[in-house]
Write a structure and sequence with these properties.
alpha/beta; 6 helices; 4 strands; 48% helix
């Protein structure tokens, strides 16, 4: 699918964090990961995503503050690519995420999308995929907020 508008996100949520992220980081991401400019990432809340038809089912989606979804379909002639980031406003409010923590979480999910199309990682394990997604956030200067996001998530898992 070609991204003729050259927008990073198609935001279906009421949260403007995606526009803020795009304004700050789109040119950096497009310069480093040129294939990303061919995509437009749909952004949904968990409840919005669950109402969409023909999207991949994501197990445990209600337990994640942010998640990503990718679906590639090909009929041999054309290839259709669906990419999305899904957020849970309820959970990031519960965790009291700062704006920078939200941006770090988005950067991590964008990292997953970037590296999904990285052939060199096609046989990589889960931990390597997570590290590569974290590296995208770090390259954008969001390593510290990402550490905070991960700490808040781990604390919640240990103390529900």
């Amino acid at each position: 699918m070609s991204n003729s508008t050259n927008k990073l996100f198609n935001n279906h949520t009421s949260d403007n964090i995606f526009q803020e992220f795009e304004q700050r980081f789109r040119s950096i991401l497009y310069q480093k990961y040129t294939h990303l400019s061919a995509l437009c990432i749909d952004c949904y809340t968990v409840s919005q995503y669950k109402l969409q038809e023909n999207v991949p089912l994501i197990e445990g989606l209600s337990n994640d503050t942010f998640a990503y979804s990718i679906d590639v379909k090909s009929d041999g002639v054309q290839r259709a690519v669906f990419v999305a980031i899904i957020l849970s406003p309820e959970l990031y409010e519960l965790f009291n995420f700062t704006e920078m923590e939200k941006m770090a979480a988005i950067a991590h999910e964008v990292g997953h999308i970037i590296h999904y199309f990285n052939e060199a990682l096609s046989t990589a394990g889960t931990m390597m995929i997570e590290i590569k997604a974290d590296e995208v956030a770090a390259q954008l200067g969001l390593a510290e907020p990402l550490k905070s996001v991960l700490h808040k998530g781990d604390f919640y898992k240990l103390n529900p």
